[in-house]
């Protein structure tokens, strides 16, 4: 049974879609079948939530259902919910605009649990949501909400989450500035005779998905290297 065992009604509520939509995607092969539990009840998990979020982003990008089927067919059968979330984030980076505005009741319905003010603060620190001028309305990234909710009960202090976010923002800005400088210097001569600013903006828009994917891939590999380099707990040391 999936780690996050959801009925089809709970999955639809968490994903912000209808039960009919879930069944339709399942029939088209866009969603893997649920695990069948007692009394022949289907149970869905975190992978289904991540896949639904990716499908939603692909639709917003303008892909047809056939194109979405081809996109998903290229993904490995063993792809994890986290890798699905990364694919969804890459697709979302191509689109202008922000997240979805949700009231607290809608937010808790999507989260699948009540959320205290401390929980909301942690989700905000993880960039999963942003508060608005109304204390009961939030701008939410639905695609990463369920991942953030799963981290709420981990023993990570809020200060550590904030520090990690600040470190990522600092180095992301530095990387963006360096990449921008490289591109501006390398393409300045070919576009000098036309409209340089417009040409550079067009090039940036075309290159953004590839650059973002490269940054994410590099970060994943570097983080894995750092994690594996951590010393083992004292009990496991020779």
Q: Helices and strands in order, then pairings?
A:
Blueprint: H1 8-15, H2 19-27, E1 35-36, E2 42-43, H3 46-60, H4 65-73, H5 81-92, E3 100-103, H6 104-111, H7 117-125, E4 129-131, E5 137-140, H8 142-151, H9 158-191, H10 196-229
Antiparallel strand pairs: 1-2, 3-5, 4-5
Helix pairs in contact: 1-2, 3-5, 3-8, 9-10
Q: Mean pLDDT across all residues, rounded? A: 82
> From the helix content, strand content and strand pairing, which structural class follows?
mainly alpha
- The total of helices stands at 10
Low-confidence stretches: none
Features:
globular; 6% strand; Multidrug-efflux Transporter Regulator, Chain: A, Domain 2; 10 helices; single chain; three-stranded antiparallel beta sheet; two-stranded antiparallel ribbon
Question: Could you please describe the fold and organization of this structure?
Answer:
With 238 residues, the chain is mainly alpha-helical. The chain folds into three domains: 8-92, Multidrug-efflux Transporter Regulator, Chain: A, Domain 2 (Orthogonal Bundle); 100-151; 162-229, no CATH class. The protein is 62% helix and 6% strand. It is built from ten helices and five strands. The protein has helices at residues 8-15, 19-27, 46-60, 65-73, 81-92, 104-111, 117-125, 142-151, 158-191, 196-229; strands spanning 35-36, 42-43, 100-103, 129-131, 137-140. The strands form two sheets. It has a three-stranded antiparallel β-sheet with strand order 3-5-4. Strands 1-2 form a two-stranded antiparallel ribbon. A hairpin with a 5-residue loop joins strand 1 and strand 2 (42-43). The chain is globular and about 65 Å long. The mean pLDDT is 82.
